[in-house]
Each structure stands twice: as C-alpha cells, then as structure tokens.
Amino acid sequence: MSVETTPPAAPAPSDFIRDIVAQHVAENRYAKIVTRFPPEPNGYLHIGHAKSICLNFGIARENAGQCNLRMDDTNPTKEEVEYVESITEDVRWLIAGWADHCLAFKPKGATPTAITSNGAPDFHIAPVSPDGSNTEPFFASDYLDQLYDYALQLIKKGKAYVCDLTPKETDEYRGAPDKPGRESPYRNRSIEENLDLFQRMRAGEFPDGARTLRAKIDMSSPNVWLRDPLLYRIRHVPHHHAGDKWCIYPLYDFAHCLSDYLEGVTHSICTLEFVDHRALYDWILESLELPRALPHQYEFAKLIPSYMIVSKRKLLHLVNEKIVAGWDDPRMPTLSGLRRRGIPASALRRFVIGVGVTKYDSVTDIAVFEHAIRDELNSLAQRRLAVLRPIKLVLTNLAPDEVIECDATNNPQDENPTTRKVALTREVFIESDDFAEIPPPKYFRLKPGGEVRLKYACIIKCEEVIKDASGAVTELRCTADLTTRSGQPNADRKVKGTIHWVSASRSVTAEVRLYDRLFTAAEPDADGDFLKHVNPRSLEIVQARLEPALADLKPGEVVQFERLGYFTPDSKDSRPDGLVLNRTITLKDTWTK
Ligand code: ATP
Ligand code: MG
To answer: Does the global pTM surpass 0.90?
Structure first.
C-alpha cells in the first residue's frame, strides 16, 4: 500500500481568508488567483508550515489558481542549499496528488520577465521533466537587480535615504510603541547624495553595518514599523543562490512585497506577527506607483500543536545539540521527520486543514493530529502479525516439522477483505506481556493453566512454565486445541483473550524503534526553557519478530501490527539484511496513563 495515492481530503471549510478570495473572484478583480508559500531556507519545514502550505495551495486549488513556492532568501548569513532542497522535496510530498497541478515552476535560472494576461509573469511555460530537474522554485534572490532598481526609484522620489546611524543608535532613535521616535540626523540628505551613497554601498566601499538604506515615512507613527524602517543593509557575504554579486541585501519587508508583486501574487498570506508590517507592505508598493494590480497581505494564526516546538531556530538547536539524530529524526515535527515516521501526507493535510484558519493564536491538542493519523491509517494499512518483545511458546502436541496454514485477514476495513496465509508451527513467539505468572484480577491473556486464542489459529492452554536459574520465564509449554480452528466443529468456542503471535521458524527479526513524544510538557516552550522538557524516554529500541512478508515492505508503506500500532520501514537505516522499522503511532492514546 502506498500512502501517497490516497483520495484527496474532504474540501476545506470556509474561513475569513477564503471569504475574501471568494469576494474578489465574484468581483472579477484578478484574472487568476495567485498565492505563494515563502519559506526562508534557514531550516527544514515543520508541521506549522504544513498549515501555511495547505492554506496557500488549497486556495489556489479551489480557485483554479496557482501557488508559487518561493525561497525567501535575502538574508545570506543563515541560508543554505541543503535547506532549499529539503523544502522543495517536502512541499512536493505534502501536495502530491492533491494540489501539484497548482505548484508553479520556473525554468531553471529564469527570472520573471514574460507578462501574461494577468499582467503577471507566467512560469507554467516549462514542460516539467519527470524528475523535475529542469525546473526550480522561485527565489527572492533572483530579484535582487529589480529590487535594487526599485530602491533607486524610492530614493529619486525622496522616499528613502542612506543613514549612517549604527544599528544600536537606529534602535534607540526608533523609540518604542509608547515612546515616539526621533529623526535621524541623516534623514534630510539630498537625493543626489543618497543616490551616490547607495551606489557606493552596492559597490562595496563600506564595511558591514556602516550604512543602511531607510524608508522615509514617519518617526512619530504609532506603528513602529513605519518609523523609517531599514530597507537595505551591508553584508559582505556570498549568497547560496545569487553568488558573490551582492554585498548589500534587502530586508524582509522590502523584498517580500515586491517579490509578491513581481510574481503576480494576488493574495499574500502570512501569520499574525506580520499584522503590523502590513502598513509597510502597502506603503512600499503604493510609493512606487506600479503599473499592475497590487498584491495584498492577509494574516492568520500560527499552528502550534501541543507537545511540539515549531520554530526552526529551536529545532536547529535540537539537531546541533544532538538531542535528536537530525532534522529528519522521526521524533521531529519536521515534514521530513513525520514522513520518515510513516505519517501519510493525506493525514497531515487532513489535520492542518481541519483545525481551520483563525485570527487568534492558540495551542492545538496533539490528540487531534493523532486522531487524524489513526483514522487515515486504519483504512489504508494492511494488518500483519509481529511480536515486539518475544517470549517462546512451544505447542507440545505439534510435530517439530508440522506447519498449519491459517487464514489471516489483511484489512477488515476493506469492502471485500482479502486474506493471506500465516504458518502455525510447534514453536511460536508471543508478546511477553501477554503472559502473567501471577495474573492481576480480570487478566484475560495467558496464565498458568489458562486458555487464550492465538489469533487466526486456535485455542491453546498453558500447561507448564519453564524458567532459568534466575527465575526468569524462558519458555511456555502449551497444548493447541486444533478442533477450535476455523472450519472445525469447535471453532466458535469462546475464550476471553485473543493474542497475536508469529511462528519462530517462519518469521524474520527486525529492530523496531518505538517513538514517544519528544517533550513531556504540553507547551514545552511556555517557560522559555524547552530543553528542560525533553522526554528522556522518547525512543525505545526492541528486537522484534515479524511475519516474513514484512521484509519486503518499502519506505512509505505503513502496516498495522495487530494490537500494537502502525509501523513503517525506516527510509535511512533499513536494509534487506537488517530490517529497521519505525512505529508511526500506537493504536490508542496511551499517553494519559
Ligand atoms: P520559524 O519561526 O519556524 O523559523 P518562520 O515564520 O520564520 O518560522 P518562514 O520560513 O518565514 O518561517 O515561514 C514560511 C511561511 O510559513 C510564512 O508565511 C510563515 O508565516 C508560515 N509559518 C511559519 N510557521 C507557521 C506556523 N506555526 N503555522 C502556520 N504557518 C506558519
Ligand atoms: Mg520567517
């Protein structure tokens, strides 16, 4: 079973952003709805980004529009090609079979020049090769020439100036929300002087931090973002995508609105921390008196699931401190970690779409996510038999070479469930905690002298318990009542417990990694010290025994081990001669116990 060929999730419910888009569509305001997903390539994408991806691609999908994947890469000090590649892979994975037709590509190396009927550049021109190698996502750094020209235009309009205040002085002059700002002494330089200085900034004449380009807006505005915000700063560092052509780089607020404009974006959707930036977004675009329809910014609340950290910087810290094995460690809330853990893209989409789009920050119960995963896998996953902590059980009335083929159901959720054969032999393994020598009250599993049903096989009775010198149980000697097999006269005879098992001779061994939540606190970062709440027991490794066919399972395929949970091969570490499986999720929520 491949988890990527699932039917699309239910249609997204409406929300205030979709209502705005619907209004614009009704008014025919734009020839085409264009959104974008603009990550900064300074880390791997996490579950919060999945919400933004599904919102932006969802709106494009519902309105026959397009969504651009854009690297928001104008801060070269923290950005890397590794991140560009992982982001591209993760976005493709998340939208595959759902909204890939809305993902706009551009031919490798192209910058926006062609203008379409929308008045926007059209990047759907490249026939995408099957591996996508002739195309690439959009890069804000591809627009550095255009952005520089726009900066010159602002200077010529008297709306931007070169400022010599140090970063510290700039902060002091800016004031605070309740404290007015002060005008920079460089604010009233002539246009000629500003043009000269800005060109010399670009030419590399000044060291980092010596000068900045600032918008000339209003130092007394109640919105601090309008108090002559920085547009450009000097950074003598090469860029992962643009090379070493530049030593000045635009700041987010300048680059973002203009990148949106250059790409013909209509709805620029971001998270609530940008509400106060909106006035600046509009000011820059309006000040330039641009010929085409302007994009507008809309804000929604971040997704913050409980027991998770959604900050690239903090996730990087977990990686650097080796608290996890890497960005794609299956305990990480990154898309690559969740994928490696076996969580289907469809379950992730279902979750992030289902929680809705609001204007108020809140924590989403992780149980909602886990419910979506279980629900999705319940119908997708084939059932298999596996024993995580094996204890040997000998069926003394079976001959050593006797093999009884039993019919096991593959997925009872299927409309017409199919079956496969599993071999019952004289020696089998059962789960060690399915036996109790001194059983607690109401214990319906195996106990001395007691009976249980081996699922799909027959009822067995525990006749003798063998122990080693230390008193540990090493073997259970039982008898099998073969008249209770299906089709036999006593097939309907009831016992209270049914347990899973595998044949000792007809099974394979595997390392199974049992993952638990990475943090023990619902809001690990509430007190600003998330490291304190790392779960010391987030990974347990066991040597399990599996049905032989499980050796052929491929990464991305998830099965249910009956009574245990959902499992998938580890895409990095599993080999034919050394199987490694990850537990995607348990069958039930065991956390509360
Ligand atoms: P981080 O703090 O993890 O670095 P970020 O906001 O800096 O996150 P970006 O790369 O700028 O990361 O994010 C790309 C897009 O994803 C932005 O539009 C951002 O608003 C959105 N986004 C980031 N985190 C979340 C979240 N938790 N929920 C929803 N959207 C998010
Ligand atoms: Mg950001």
So the answer is: yes
